[in-house]
Amino acid sequence: MTGITSFLHTQHAARQPVDDSVFDTAALVFTIERTFDAPVRAVWTAIDDDRAWSWLPFPRVGVRYDSPLRGVGVVRDMGSVFEPLRFLWVEREKFWRYEPNRRITFGVVSGNWMQYLLVSQYAEDMTFTDIGNDRTGLAWTVAVTPRLPLRFSTWAPPLWRAAYRIGGIGPLFDRRVRQVARTLPPPPRVVQANGKAAPAVGNRRTGKGVK
Known about the structure:
The protein is α+β, with helices and mostly antiparallel strands. Helices cover about 25% and strands about 35% of the residues. The chain has six helices and ten strands; from the N terminus they run H-E-H-E-H-E-E-E-E-H-E-E-H-H-E-E. Strands 1, 2, 3, 4, 5, 6, 7 and 8 form an eight-stranded antiparallel β-sheet that branches. Strand 9 and strand 10 form a beta hairpin. Helix 3 (about 40-50) packs across helix 6 (about 170-185).
């Protein structure tokens, strides 16, 4: 029993580099975009906080960080990270780009048995754009190389896009964003050169993709 438990929880390191090159070498790379009726801080927080991905339609799914730190080089667990289902699917994700309210890029550096058997490469890049009037654009690029028996699935990119659009950033994520938006403190105010206070300008970024 100890041997089986150890096998189920063992992390297998990725064999390929985990950096921007994944977006060039992966078997399938696709981008989906959505606009949210919420400020960019709310959309960013929903993706970045300790409840990230808990809205996915699978039991005991979410993220667990090794520490409260956030930034480049941070590694977290993602998947069925909570007991009693932690043995099912846990991948270790490392951030190599972290620009609050603007952009994050991360990839899988290791995975347990399920991740290892099904996926050989995986990375994500997310760009957040403040488009004004408390609305946010999100461009989400995914790079994945499935192993057999999932390799044939790369022949159907529309199915991947639909799954990520509906399950990843669909109605359940939209509800989470609205929850975050209701609890966010007001944006900080900045002092202009004339000594008068003015609302802080939201972060804006028009670039998309991973390059």
